[in-house]
Amino acid sequence: MPSASLVFQSIVLGVLLGGLYALLAAGLTLYFGVMRVVMIAHSAFLILAAYLAWYAHRELGVDPLLTLLVTVPLFFAVGVAMQRLLLTRLRPATLTMMSVLLTFSIALVIEGLLGYAFSGTQRRIRLGYSSASLEFFGARIAVVKLIAFGMAAAALLGLYLLMKRSRFGQALRATIQHREAAQLLGIDTDRIAGYGFGLGLATAAVGGTALALDTTIYPSLHWHWIGPLMAIIVVGGLGSVPGAAIAAMALGMTQSLLQLELSTTWAQTVFYVALFATLALRPQGLFGGRLAQRF
Amino acid sequence: MPRGSEALRRSGRFLRLGALLAGIAVALSFPSFVPSPYELTVGIAILNYAVLSTSWNFVGGFTGYISLGHGAFAGLGAYGTGLLVTKAELPSFAALFAAAALVAVLAVPVGYAALRVRGASFVIVSIALVLILLLVFQSWASFTGGSRGLVVPRPFPGMLRAEHHEVFYFLFLALLAVALLAWWIIDRSRFGMGLKAIREDEDKAQSLGTPTYTYKLVVFVVSATFTALAGGLYGLWFGDLDPVFQFSILSGSYMVLMALLGGVRHLYGPLLGAVIVGYGLEYSKVEYGDTPLHLVFAGLLLGVVVMFMPDGVIPAVTGLVARVFRTGETSIREVTAAELRAEREADAPDTPSERRTDDQPDGKREVRQ
Fold it and tell me: Which family is it part of (chain A) (predicted)?
């Protein structure tokens, strides 16, 4: 039985990891909300952002956090372009399936280009504060993990405020809830859906930079992220942001605690176990409503 | 021009039969005129792809549920066969069928979970299946050999390399023939009709009394079994298994790409796609080696197919042919009144022109003036 302080440390690490999962799952939920699209390329963009942060740090010597100023607007624009130029052109009848394939193909292209440009070598950012850590009630927490969590939390809070407080957020939520009704109220749902998609991709930019701070990255890493993220949104209920956040926290913490007893690889299977259990027992997910059951 | 189109249709049938016989002849004689065993291995690889994507097409083509994780069943078939040969010391081909049966049993709970939900969640489950099996087979090294791989003993130990390839060429060909035959039979059956109803509108199919869930589950298991047979045969032929290649999301996506490229609603669609993509893959491997660029090409090709040709090459080409030769099976025919009158008079010069012309044997109705 591991000591109490070790368990406490795992819980703290689980919360920090869960924060990042929650941010990324929120992005996936946004895509699903506005377009009924499961975006497989989300984690590929995550790795792309991490590579951009690493590359900027290596070539220009800037702090990875500064790359956010470029990557967030860039990813937002790419997301809007993707929605407007690619996804809206698919046939509505087969949109769900075909969009999966389309975003999957985008993920393959990104992975291939990253591998071609930067080779398959594992990369890691070395920062002055990389090895620094804080004592927190007997648990040792790396500073970079705290920064990553802070970024994720700030981005999630920003997203929440944007969705709840702004006029755009209201229009976005209306579009998600009932597209036709939103149109009747004079909302340009196509434009709003495009922005929603861009917003989702911007979360990948933030998440990727946070990931680059304390993780070794390589081109095929995105497969290790997409599985857990997909599991989180299904367990939370497709389309439900609070569901995704709660599932992200719960599963992130479980994974972290299981790592005490099992190897890292086996601990990751918790996501898939949760996924299969959810589908077998409660297919609409923990917080999924009418919407989730149909997709 | 009903006579003309009837003749064309009949000649089309002969043409199709001729093409089928020619295809069989080419496939059967291929090993005897290849210049070197290398070309034969390319042929085997393409046949393997063809069996895999035809197996995938049982689910993807009939029900419209797109599984990106069928590579998992191929990997399970290969590993199942290999482990049954090495650990349980079964004869090779008994192990192959036992492994396929085990995969069929395993596909029931997987399908049970995956098919409870539609569309998006199904794809997620199919991807998760590959990722989870990759984790398990890499971590459980004491049983599966882990990343060091698993060596499958050859089924015919005394055989020369070239003969070995030739035997497996014909084995893959036979498996392909069985898979195509099964697809053809289902396509013409009531069961297949129900599956296609699911593809077109699952709610309506259900309300009309089609047992949609059972149908989906049955065809999922059939598809998984054929995929496992192909994977197991590959394991016996190749003789060396690595979890990274066996449980790769890429192998599953190749199946989807090939089937979509050829045309999921057509019997030979996946086969055609496998020939095109499989040849391209082998060619680029020789010309450019193993660079990450093959991912880019695969991704771009998949993207182009999804965006511009979601029905595949076969419908695109037949549509073009139909436009050129005007044999199109459209519901509205473009016939002018003058043409129609001339036709009727040519048809029945001695009867008045009021005679109905819509009693043709093929049930086609002319536009009445």
Answer: Belongs to the binding-protein-dependent transport system permease family. LivHM subfamily.
Which domain, by its residues, includes B43?
A: 36-320
- Domain assignment of residue B246, yes or no: yes
> Going by C-beta distance under 8 Å and a sequence separation of 6 or more, which residues neighbour residue A84?
A190, A194
pLDDT at B34 over 50: yes
Structure letter (DSSP) for residue A133: E
Residues in A closer than 8 angstroms to B296, CB to CB, are 108-109, 112-113, 116
A86 and A31 Cβ atoms separated by less than 8 Å: no
Task: State the CATH number of the domain containing residue B164.
Answer: 1.10.3470
Chain A interface, best mutation among B112, B138, B295, by max A CB count within 10 A: B295
Count of structural domains within chain B: 1
Residues of A in contact with B56 (CB under 8 A): none
Domain assignment present for B340: no
CATH of the domain at A50: 1.10.3470
Block means of pLDDT (10 residues each) for chain A, length 295 residues? Answer: 77 87 89 85 93 90 86 93 88 83 92 88 77 72 84 89 89 86 88 91 91 86 88 84 87 88 80 86 72 47
Confidence of residue B233 (pLDDT cuts 50, 70, 90): very high
Domain count, chain A: 1
Q: How far is B156 from chain A (nearest CA, A)?
A: 37
pLDDT tens for B80-95 read 999 999 888 888 899 9
Let me know if residue B195 belongs to a domain. yes
Residue range of the domain that includes A241: 4-293
Four-CA torsion B193, B196, B198, B199, nearest 10 degrees = -170
What's the DSSP call for residue A217?
B
CB contact under 8 A, B131 and A101: no
Task: For residue B114, give the chain A residue with the closest CA.
Answer: A279
